[in-house]
Amino acid sequence: MSTITIEDSLGITFCNRQQVAIERGEGCYVWDDAGNRYIDFTAGWGVTCLGHSHSCITDAIYKQALKIIQNPNSGFTYSPARARLLQVLKNVLPGSLHKIYFVNSGAEANDAALKLARKITGKTKVIATGGSFHGRTFNTLSVSGGKENTNRYLPSMPENCFVRFGDYDELASVLDVNTAAVIVEPIQGEGGVRIPDLNYLSRVDQLCKQRGVLLIIDEIQTGFCRTGKFFASQHSLVEIRPDFMTMGKGIAGGFPFAAFAVSAPVDALLNRGDHGGTYCGNPLGCAVAAAVVGFLIENRVAEKVAASGAVLLAELQQLQRKYPSLILAVRGRGLLCALELSSDKVVQTLTQTCLEKGLLVTPTRNRIVRLIPYLLIERAEMAAGLGILDAALSSVVQSV
Ligand SMILES: Cc1ncc(COP(=O)(O)O)c(C=O)c1O
After folding, report:
1. Which residues are catalytic?
2. Ligand 1 atom showing the smallest separation from residue 190 Cα
3. What are 357-400's pLDDT values in tens digits?
4. SS (H, E, C) 289-358
5. Domains along the chain?
6. Ligand 1 site residues, Cβ closer than 6 angstroms
């Protein structure tokens, strides 16, 4: 029986699967179980920032696994690997962030931030933005997308509300004395690479400070050089001073790992037992994350991403001029880019055609195809991927 047959019959599926079984990867490429090669413009949903099987990651896994994978009593004991990661991360975090805690996934980082914000303020209302994505736990779901999404799992934190992303005035109008926190992405990733004005986040930050509301910045998709700065909130014209910042995905280049950092005033209000978990801050994840973050710093990857992102965006704009009936808009910052297409059907057809021609892209809600290559992409690899995209668009334009 084939991989696909076994998975379809024995595994639970919550999504439409692409008909490809990925066997291995290297750099920008992956191979299926029949030996066919594909260019990966998904970076595993923005995770494999150094590409597939980078020696920096495989060496860190191997060396740490030979030493220890999980500490006795987990977080009750200290870990040199954890201490190293804390030091490396502290060098790149925005100045207001004082202490860091390691968790296993982006959703868990946001879930913890939301839970702790409610606890320390004694309030229950959280304001989120329409089209957001913060995870699939019950708590994070209640601040993701919009009411049509949260109403699928009732009752879902009934006081939480959504405002238009990028609309400062609407946010100011609903932020009241019952509000515990505002949670926002610097750029909405799953929402379709939606980029707000450069002064939006700083105005939200100032408003939260004025009204005593906590600000949670979700850098899970945008952090770790993805947008051409170490964190996307650093594109703001005025420095942001969040109370919580959540991180995941690129932090460990593919190893499941995430984190949240808090300001000193928030840290002062946290107590023993407020959060924890069996694998939180496990030495293996910490060693991999320290290697990845160290690599990003030493190799000035953010600057390289800013340059290659500008090339990618210009090339995509060129494709928009070539296929105006299919591509309605092009958006991007750094190597987080999106095409807004004419319909969801076109998204499906284009994604499938790209796959058949050897390119993996990410279809997203609302007529979007995201292009999220690994951060070290070389010009020739980008040109090869864009050549396939061009050919796929050409055959889609003839078929619709
Ligand atoms: C901005 C943002 N927050 C949170 C999450 C959830 O992260 P995870 O899938 O690791 O739980 C995602 C995942 O796509 C995301 O893009």
Report:
1. 133, 218, 249
2. 16
3. 999 999 998 899 999 999 999 999 999 999 999 999 999 999 87
4. HHHHHHHHHHCCHHHHHHHHHHHHHHHHHHHHHHCCCCEEEEEEECCEEEEEECCHHHHHHHHHHHHHHC
5. 55-298 (3.40.640.10), 318-325+353-371+388-394 (no CATH)
6. 45, 105-107, 110, 133-135, 185, 189-190, 218, 220-221, 248
